[in-house]
Amino acid sequence: MTELAKGLFINLSSADFFHIRKAFKLGTMVRKNHKLPVTVYMNLGAVRFANKGLPLASAEHVKIHDTSIHELMTTFVKAGGSIVVCPMRLKGEGLTNNDLLEGIKVADNDAILTLMLEKSVKIISF
Questions:
Q1: Sign of the CA dihedral 121, 83, 57, 93?
Q2: Is the dihedral of CA 24, 92, 60, 17 positive or negative?
Q3: Cα-flanking dihedrals φ and ψ of residue 55, to 5°?
Q4: How far is 110 from 116, CA to CA, in rounded Å?
Q5: How are the residues of the chain apportioned to helix, strand and coil, as percentages rounded to the nearest 5?
Q6: Contact, 88 vs 44, CB < 8 A?
Q7: pLDDT > 70: percent of the chain
């Protein structure tokens, strides 16, 4: 049997709905099927989707397979996944901790760098 990584780090910088969906669907599958730690790091264009008040992220007309972006993110967190946002981009979007969807945290840059440099953690970018 193939030896698995010890965790998954998903770098999500895209604001594209399909990329965001892939990131959270993949992260949720890894959590549910392999019980590995999964962190989604939202930066650049993806950060605005962490805003609980963003109508676009929960709108009916942009659901993919009857699931909104916020529903995908909530399912991922409930499966034990971790979502962190870039603090500089959060500020750049004019957002604060209070604007974040429940379960999302502001990233600690040192912790993120340490996780990214861990040899046993697989990194995927969307």
A1: negative
A2: negative
A3: -60, -35
A4: 10
A5: 50, 20, 30
A6: no
A7: 92
Tokens of 26: 């993949």
Q: Which two tokens stand for residue 65?
A: 């397979």
Q: Are 38 and 11 in contact (CB under 8 A)?
A: no
Amino acid at 30: V
DSSP code at position 126: -
pLDDT at 63: 65
Q: Which residue has the higher pLDDT, 68 or 30?
A: 30
- Rounded CA-CA distance 91/1 in Å is 45
Q: Which residue has the tokens 């990214």?
A: 116
| Strand duo 104-106 + 38-42: pairing | unpaired
**12-29+38-119: CATH architecture:** 3-Layer(aba) Sandwich (3.40)
23 and 15 in contact (C-beta within 8 Å)? no
